[in-house]
Amino acid sequence: MSTVSDAVMAKTSCGPVRGRESEGVARYLGIPYAAAPVGDLRFVAPQPHAPWDQPRDATAFGPTAPYQLRDFPTLDLTPLVGSGWVKGDDYLNLNIWTPAGSDAAGLPVMVFIHGGAWVGGTASAPTQDGTSFARNGVVCVTINYRLGIEGFLPIPGVPTNLGLRDMIAALGWVRDNIAGFGGDPANVTVFGESAGAMSIGDLVVSPLAKGLFRRAILQSGHGSMVRSVRTMRKVVDRLAKVLGVSADVAGFRSASIQAGLDAQDVVQAPTSGLDMRGENGRDPAYGLSKFLPVHGDDVIPVPPLQALAKGAGAEIDVLIGTNAEEMNLYFVPTGVKAKLGRLLAWFLLSRTERGALGILNRYGLGQRGVPGGATLTRALTDLVFRWPARAYAQAHQGRTHFYEMDWRSPALGGELGACHAVDVPFVFNTLATATGPIGVLGQTPPPQALADSIQKVWIDFARDGSAPWPEYEAGTRQVYQLAKGRAEPDTDFPIAATWRE
Which residues are catalytic? Predict the structure, then answer.
């Protein structure tokens, strides 16, 4: 609870909230933006929250969406994904960091959507603290949304894409309320990483999100990680079988949240045997998650790249980028990169991609001294993240700037490198949270100057759409290397000629 001296108050459409001020930053944490999705509202589109009369305490993070951690013993991921499910009904909540003082008004707003493969993560993860953004004149917001079975499973009788609908509801709340926290509702930038960025790639083209944000920043994300309802029904049927319930809304409502989480772990496992390849012969998640947004509804009427080609989202400025060695996060701590043989590398890719052998050969599988694990890691870095992000940038008809995170983490003997999620502590300027003996950033303090410069790029873009390098266009294909601090022509990709949406 705040003391009298550090308490700050703000008004929302539901009622007053009481936050806390410290060192020039006001924090309002755990504010509900929609009704609790439990009881009769479980598996229902987000509904308005009931109003309150007395000031609601907003000095501590609220509950999180239900999720279970996936740990690497050699790497501490809790700063990136949180420490696990914090139970409570009102988990459709958000957190706000804003410059303290009554004169704060008309500031740019940045709304962050966390990653976690649509089955994990939280808005309160330590790396996502918005203090530095607020100190630099930005109103920063982080949001929770439904995950896994509750948010991204097209159960018959349930609205599709509930997690995306939650994000849209949160953005609607920001539009209606953020002026009371010093923000400009007409200057909102939505930014996110991994599944959060993939979701933003969908929201850019969604008719339901139109007008809710002016700019978008996609960190290791794009618009190709979506599935048809038909393909996702395989997950519905398998989960129902694991849970011992009918494959409809009544069946899934009869299962407890915890039972659902345990069933998710069974279905998410590589040994589940589920073939998630779509009509094009590709699993767009390449085995990383069985839970993806679906297209063909009112949220995502057609696959995002098709919508972009028709001009959807052209009014939105886009900053998009990837990390140079994305898949190292998954394959280095597990030993896959160092130990996997060539035959097994082919087998693993063949389960998610048609023509796997040809792809791996283009990445040097047959070359002497090139391990199968290293080849698979390079190929999947391009297939899962780097190439689809470039396809998104190319298809977007509005202003688009592309970056690459090229700073290499010294963690795990220098092998972790420019892996997935290594950019997040730099963007939020929260390096200390991910530094340590088993920290993602390694034990040696990372370059503070790089965090300052990266966050400045994000803030300048959010403020007015500016970027210190040219747009990404077919003729020039300029990519800004964040650590080098300069733009370079894009590299060529071995799979560019054969990859199809």
Answer: 194, 326, 420
